[in-house]
């Protein structure tokens, strides 16, 4: 298997789309070295939980084909010759609801939606369902440098079914874009869930989380043994990390849980 270098952006994005795009672009442009894909955290375009008004969030949402936010990201991707995974507040035809969508912007300026968040954060007193329509299927699997990558978003970490399905679809790395809200024991919960999802599916988990007043940070990389290899702590940071995908084959040979799962279980998605 190949190796792949992933750039992880951990920062707070408290403003509107134009300002948030400018901040992300500035962070990446100043620090980029050789990453194959750069990952921005959840809500890095716009934070509905801070705005609080679904209709106002809807007014700032965009469609992928006409998005000014994606246009700016495409310029950066072309300039650096890199893929960028953005979190996008996607306009729908059912206002005031939008969709929480992961989009890959390629080095050729294409914007490819790869996943819309299935499990909305209706917990701890928050109601994402006031802002978003849920996605109804696991994400696409994208190959970069021969490594197969799947996608999930934040609260999805609490739903092991999605990760098992995404792994059975062929993922070797699963990227998690997160805005993990602060609270009692929330850092430890995030760390344990990411570690477990990595180990039980023998995949790498790459986590890009927001930080600041509302979110815990602690972005990083978890290997298929469930060990955290990288921890970005609490401060704003950009780090590039190279993953040697050969470890995935080694772990799966010693711990063939995915094949055993295929042999034992029939897993199907109940469409909404």
How would you characterize this protein structure?
The radius of gyration is 17 Å and the shape is globular. It is an alpha/beta fold and 272 residues long. Strand 4 and strand 5 form a beta hairpin.
Which short descriptors sum up this protein?
8 helices; single chain; 6-stranded mixed β-sheet; 272 residues; 12 strands; alpha/beta
Strand percent estimate: 25-35%
Mean pLDDT: 97
Q: From the alpha carbons, calculate the radius of gyration and give it in angstroms.
A: 17 Å
Counted by DSSP, the helix tally is 8
Please tell me what the overall shape is.
Answer: globular
Strand neighbour order, sheet with most strands = 5-4-3-2-1-12
Distance between the termini: 36 Å
Taking pLDDT < 50 over at least 5 consecutive residues as the criterion, the unreliable ranges are none
- String of helices and strands: EHEHHHEEEEEHEHEEEEHH
Indicate the percent of residues in helices: 25-40%
Alpha-beta classification = alpha/beta
Using DSSP, what is the number of strands?
12
Summarize the structure.
The protein contains eight helices and twelve strands. The chain has 272 residues and is of the alpha/beta class.
Topology (elements, then pairings):
Blueprint: E1 3-10, H1 17-31, E2 37-39, H2 48-51, H3 54-60, H4 68-80, E3 83-91, E4 98-105, E5 111-116, E6 142-144, E7 147-153, H5 160-168, E8 173-178, H6 186-201, E9 204-209, E10 220-222, E11 228-231, E12 237-244, H7 246-254, H8 257-264
Parallel strand pairs: 1-2, 2-3, 7-8, 8-9
Antiparallel strand pairs: 1-12, 3-4, 4-5, 6-7, 9-10, 10-11
Helix pairs in contact: 1-4
């Amino acid at each position: 298997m190949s190796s792949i270098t992933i750039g992880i952006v951990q920062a707070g994005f408290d403003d509107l789309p134009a300002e948030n795009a400018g901040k992300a672009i500035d962070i990446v442009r100043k620090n980029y070295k050789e990453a194959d894909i750069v990952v921005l955290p959840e809500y890095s375009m716009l934070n509905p939980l801070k705005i609080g008004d679904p209709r106002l969030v809807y007014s700032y949402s965009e469609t992928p084909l006409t998005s000014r936010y994606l246009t700016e990201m495409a310029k950066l991707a072309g300039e650096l010759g890199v893929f960028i995974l953005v979190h996008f507040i996607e306009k729908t035809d059912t206002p005031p609801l939008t969709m929480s969508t992961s989009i890959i912007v390629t080095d050729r300026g294409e914007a490819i939606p790869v996943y819309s968040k299935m499990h909305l954060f209706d917990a701890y007193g928050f109601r994402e369902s006031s802002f978003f329509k849920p996605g109804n299927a696991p994400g696409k699997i994208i190959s970069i440098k021969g490594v197969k990558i799947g996608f999930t978003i934040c609260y999805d970490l609490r739903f092991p079914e999605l990760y098992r399905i995404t792994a059975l679809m062929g993922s070797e790395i699963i990227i998690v874009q997160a805005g993990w809200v602060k609270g009692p024991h929330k850092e430890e919960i995030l760390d344990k869930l990411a570690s477990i999802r990595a180990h039980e599916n023998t995949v790498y988990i790459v986590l890009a989380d927001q930080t600041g007043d509302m979110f815990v940070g602690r972005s990083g990389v978890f290997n298929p043994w469930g060990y955290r290899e990288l921890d970005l702590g609490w401060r704003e940071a950009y780090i590039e990390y190279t993953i040697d995908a050969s470890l995935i084959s080694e772990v799966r040979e010693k711990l063939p849980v995915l094949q055993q799962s295929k042999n034992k279980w029939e897993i199907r998605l109940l469409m909404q």
